[in-house]
Design brief:
Layout: H1 20-40, E1 49-55, E2 64-70, H2 108-128, H3 139-166, H4 168-180, H5 202-223, H6 229-267, H7 272-277, H8 283-299, H9 307-314, E3 336-343, E4 346-353, H10 358-383, H11 418-428, H12 432-441, E5 472-473
Antiparallel strand pairs: 1-2, 1-5, 3-4
Bound molecules: fe (ii) ion (2 copies).
Length: 475
């Protein structure tokens, strides 16, 4: 493990200087990345100095430094967590063998696919969020948006490094293609559908960073178990940065709720019309946004039965969430798992081989984790003395992947007909009117310490700076 060399063009702790061919290939990719950032990155941000965290080490005690920088000058680097020369594969058919420092030929295509799919989501979210800076509810929030954007850029670098170093010419072509696909582009869209959706307003952004960045966390956790050691070490470090993204989402929704319940108490009303007239987002609308983002995100885990998932696991490419903490044989050949399907108009559980159900296993772990934040949001409502409870919708609600995709199921888990669905969907998912209302609240507030009317200030600033610190200098 070499120390990070910041005098190099590409900061890294992978001894890039010792591999001139690789270094040159990445230095050729770098200007294309900057061009992409200029074209597709945060709109109108070129001259701003932003108080950003930059990774400077992989030491958990002090891995980042903070300072005002221009985003296009951000030091996007390549960092891997420290390796363990004796690391063993701890699941699948190769259990007990030495972890791979290179890509075995027979797993090359699958590993490349996994890395490309993960890599594709990183720039996709930057593209989805590129207009949000124009309607930031505060300078503090603007900075957090930009922090997430530059770190998703670094996650792209992390995947591109693996492609360049381990996959030769194919890898270099895939790395180029990561800058050519664009979110929502009809001819050349991003790989996963959720990353082609718009992030049109800040409530959507906070929901996205709470729910969809958490999907990222679970995918990264599963890859951090990989037998391919460089992938495991890369994703472990990415997880360090990911935590802040989910914090932005959770605290953003929480502050939105805080402001709403404050106004509910001031006006002594739960009347939606009055609350909207007062410029805050009513709790039923927040519930509908939760229903939407939760259901779209759990689709990202893939079909509930998948032979690919079984192959990825058995061959050691992708483990389960916290694989090492589980007390089973880590091979799973005889194990089974329950998945849901609709039979005769009813939801039923079906027992299937666990290896084929590993997408469902990861989805269920995700669901447990994501419900924690909803509980914390409910505490804000409870504390204000308001009798309203937010909930996660049923797992079968609004699904578009796997065996549930053809069925209509309510947020409570009742199977309904198409007609019943159409009659009620406006109560369950954000309507055009909801979205237009939320959109109407989005005005730019960027004076230090000022906040848009629909959201409460945070309890604390970033890196122990005051809330009214000048996080962004517009020049
Ligand atoms: Fe990421
Ligand atoms: Fe993220």
């Amino acid at each position: 493990m070499s120390v990070i060399n910041y005098s190099e063009k590409i900061p890294n702790n992978v001894n890039l200087g010792g591999d001139r061919t690789l270094q040159r290939a990445l230095e050729q990719w770098q200007p294309n990345f900057i061009n992409w950032w200029d074209d597709m990155g945060p709109e109108g941000s070129t001259d701003m100095d932003v108080y950003l965290r930059t990774a400077v080490s992989v030491d958990p005690q002090g891995w980042a430094q903070f300072g005002h920088v221009k985003m296009r000058d951000y030091r996007w680097g390549v960092f891997l967590n420290p390796g363990d020369q004796d690391r063993k594969i701890h699941f699948g058919d190769h259990i007990g063998e030495k972890a791979w420092q290179d890509v075995p030929g027979e797993h090359r295509a699958n590993l490349r696919r996994i890395i490309v799919t993960q890599g594709d989501t990183e720039p996709a979210s930057v593209e989805q969020q590129r207009h949000l800076g124009l309607t930031a509810p505060s300078m503090y929030d603007l900075r957090n948006l930009f922090q997430i954007n530059v770190e998703e850029g670094r996650h792209l670098w992390a995947m591109v490094y693996l492609l360049h170093k381990y996959f030769g010419k194919d890898g270099r072509e895939e790395a180029d293609a990561l800058l050519e696909r664009n979110s929502g582009n009809e001819d050349n869209p991003r790989i996963l559908q959720a990353f082609n959706e718009k992030t049109p307003d800040w409530l959507s952004f906070f929901m996205f960073t709470y729910f969809t960045d958490r999907d990222g966390k679970f995918q990264l956790c599963a890859l951090a178990e990989s037998a391919f050691d460089p992938l495991a070490r890369t994703t472990k470090f990415m997880l360090t940065e990911e935590a802040h993204h989910m914090f932005v989402g959770e605290s953003g929704v929480s502050r939105t709720i805080q402001r709403t319940v404050n106004v509910m108490n001031e006006l002594k009303t739960d009347d939606i019309g009055k609350l909207r007239a007062a410029g805050v987002i009513d709790l039923p609308t927040i519930q509908r946004y939760i229903n939407f983002h939760f259901s779209v995100t759990i689709d990202l885990f893939g079909a509930d039965q998948s032979s690919n998932a079984a192959t990825f696991y058995s061959s050691g490419l992708k483990g389960r969430y916290e694989e090492g903490k589980r007390a089973d044989d880590h091979v799973l050949k005889g194990s089974s798992y329950k998945i849901l399907s609709v039979e005769d108009g009813k939801l039923v559980q079906k027992e299937v081989p666990m290896l084929n159900a590993l997408n469902e296993v990861l989805r269920d772990d995700y669901i447990t984790d994501s419900k924690g934040g909803i509980d914390r949001w409910n505490r804000v409502i409870e504390k204000a003395g308001i009798p309203f409870k937010l909930t996660a919708p049923h797992k079968a609600f609004h699904r578009n992947i796997g065996s549930l995709s053809g069925s209509k199921v309510t947020p409570e888990g009742q199977v309904v007909t198409n007609e019943q669905w159409m009659a009620k969907v406006g109560e369950w998912l954000p309507s055009n009117e909801d979205r237009a209302f939320v959109g109407s609240l989005m005005g730019r507030v960027v004076e230090p310490g000022q906040f848009a009317n629909w959201i409460a200030p945070p309890v604390m600033g970033i890196n122990r700076q005051p809330v009214n610190f000048d996080y962004v200098r517009f020049n």
